Amino acid sequence: MASDTIYLNGEFMPLEEARVPVLDRGFIFGDGVYEVVPAYSRHPFRLAEHLKRLQNSLDGIRLANPLSDAEWTALTHELIKRNDGDDQSIYYQVTRGPAKRAHEFPLEVKQTVFMMSNPLVTPPQAQIDKGVGCITATDFRWLKCDLKSVSLLGNCLLKQMAVDAGAAEVVMFRDGYLTEASASNVFIVRNGVLLAPPKNHLILPGITYDVVIEIAKANKMPIELREISEHEVRTAEEIWVTSSTKEVLAVTMLDDEPVGEGKPGGTFRRMHALYQDFKQTVMRRAA
Ligand code: PMP
Questions:
Q1: Topology (CATH) of 5-119
Q2: What are phi and psi of 182, to 5 degrees?
Q3: What is the pLDDT of residues 56-68, one digit of tens each?
Q4: What is the pTM of this model?
Q5: φ/ψ of residue 277, rounded to 5
Q6: Catalytic option among 148, 159, 220, 246
Q7: CATH of domain 125-285
């Protein structure tokens, strides 16, 4: 079976053959939204939640959803089938399509719909066992971080800062409070209580964030969603980053200072194991 089959505007084709007009507003303005759906054993994980977030992002940029949820679902399964690998990362992108360059929306919109599959790469065991180092930075992104917009220049600049520092991620603060990381949500543990910033316009509502909260509640782990000060992060017992590809990962160094004892904490180890169990149960049910 051919690898790297993508979907573009109604057709499946090899990646090398895919073309988008240079006047596409995604290219000119970053005027579009995206999703990343992990698929385990060829089953998309939490697809309904991803489609809901996609709809929310589209509503947030006033762009009509070009496909029904049933169509997205069928295309997702077809794309998974046409690509190699049991575990895949499915990328969706919808832009406001090609139009003469002008900031305001075109009167007639023909959305560009693109889907591709990449191998799903989750953290290696050494990272799970040892944790990762992160740096911190001021969150200088815009005030609609809840929309999964393809305008990711802020996130790219921030992530590069982390890479330049040899760190895995950059943990961000806005006005002295924790927001998220450049491509993941952030949880901390203080006095044995799991804390995370509430969902609002300052963070992406992560699908993994929701799963972690669900697991914590189901297992009676104390959890609070509230604003978290920079001081609370810097003196936390544990810090985690979460995302569809990172899953749950312990941050053991922050700006060259050890977090807690400098190794993944007990609450992390418990959550990591519960997360793996949860995934397997969901996948077994889907099979
Ligand atoms: N925040 C940002 C800025 C992200 O890019 C991501 C990854 N898409 C997340 C949080 C985590 O979201 P999810 O758990 O849905 O992957």
A1: D-amino Acid Aminotransferase; Chain A, domain 1 (3.30.470)
A2: -65, -25
A3: 999 999 999 999 9
A4: 0.97
A5: -60, -45
A6: 148
A7: 3.20.10.10
